[in-house]
Write a structure and sequence with these properties.
With 289 residues, the protein is an alpha/beta fold. The protein has an eight-stranded mixed β-barrel with strand order 1-2-4-5-6-7-8-9. The protein is globular and about 50 Å long. The chain starts with a helix and ends in a 5-residue tail after the last helix. The chain binds ligand C2E and calcium ion (3 copies).
Length: 289
């Protein structure tokens, strides 16, 4: 593909050819470098990575129900890196398997500390990427982490994106059941953005649908997105699933959701993702016994 692109560019003008080709080379050099850095960071035990935790709120009770762990990378040269800058690369190269395992372990370790401090009702969520889900021994990995950290399984949730389950295959379904049988919770992240058929939902051992931020963004002005959101809420209700909205940024969105029966929310309106100490300071201080 690169060759075709360069050839076409060359036909247009000599300068453009040079620009085009060096651009392609630069980009791949950069991502090879980043891949090496990622590999090294993971090999060294993962201390360049850290987690932020974004609380999930129940607007009915005004309480936190849990938090989502979101990974960040403190790159030695480039500094703070948000996940969008390295998760896709980690996914492409397979490094996500090791990184994802680190995330689940750290999430469970942190949640166990909160559990021991008396916050036994909270659920910590970790994102499970498609590669990780397809890894043949994912169930054992999660099982071992739970045993090692002594976190009760019901205090852990895995968020699976809809594209994991697009292919309603036997293997995929078997993996979901094996994970669920560990006693953990499972949710479908970014719900509504995939191309999956709704028919599959009833076969899946899931607890929660998470409505994607893209629907919430203009929920009060875009009637299509409002309709989709309402449909998801009704669907969850009729399948006996919980429903949570992500990316809630203002009061109007929160009120709309409450009015339409969705009480669980996550978003900047309530809180940005925070480091553990900050989360404790702001939200958890009065909760523990
Ligand atoms: P996601 O799982 O959909 O996570 C939600 C993202 O939206 C987070 O971005 C969060 O900070 C952001 N967010 C939450 N509330 C709001 C809001 O009200 N407004 C806006 N504008 N944004 C909001 P973040 O932390 O940058 O993560 C981006 C994505 O990277 C995540 O999307 C997830 O797909 C991926 N990711 C993050 N951590 C992990 C991880 O440990 N493993 C895997 N596989 N993926 C991860
Ligand atoms: Ca998520
Ligand atoms: Ca999401
Ligand atoms: Ca999303």
């Amino acid at each position: 593909h690169a060759d075709v692109a360069m050839y076409k560019a060359k036909e247009l003008s000599g300068n453009q050819y040079q620009f085009y080709s060096s651009d392609i080379v630069d980009r791949s050099v950069e991502s090879v470098q980043l891949e090496n850095d990622l590999y090294k960071a993971l090999d060294q035990g993962g201390n360049e990575f850290f987690l932020h935790y974004q609380p999930k709120f129940n607007a009915n009770t005004n309480e936190i129900t849990g938090m989502e762990a979101l990974v960040r990378w403190n790159h030695p040269k480039l500094g703070f890196m948000p996940p969008n800058m390295f998760i896709p690369l980690a996914e492409e190269t397979g490094l996500i398997v090791k990184l994802g395992e680190w995330v689940i372990r750290q999430s469970c370790l942190q949640m166990k500390r909160w559990y021991d401090a008396g916050l036994t009702e909270l659920v910590i969520s970790a994102n499970l990427s498609p590669q990780q889900f397809r890894q043949h021994d994912i169930t054992n990995v999660v099982k071992e982490i739970l045993e090692e950290t002594q976190l009760p399984p019901e205090n852990l949730e895995l968020e699976l994106t809809e594209n994991i389950i697009i292919h309603n295959s036997e293997t995929m379904l078997a993996t979901m059941h094996k994970l669920k049988n560990l006693g953990i919770k499972m949710s479908i992240d970014d719900f509504g953005t995939g191309y999956s058929s709704l028919g599959y939902l009833k076969d899946f051992p899931i607890d929660t649908l998470k409505i994607d931020k893209s629907f919430i963004d203009d929920i009060t002005t875009n009637t299509n997105n409002a309709a989709i959101t309402n449909t998801i809420i009704t669907l969850a209700d009729s399948l006996n699933l919980s429903v949570i909205a992500e990316g809630v940024e203002d009061q109007e969105q929160a009120e709309f959701l409450i009015e339409h029966g969705c009480y669980l929310m996550q978003g900047y309106y309530f809180s940005r993702p925070l480091e553990a100490a900050k989360l404790e300071e702001v939200f958890l201080k009065n909760l523990s016994q």
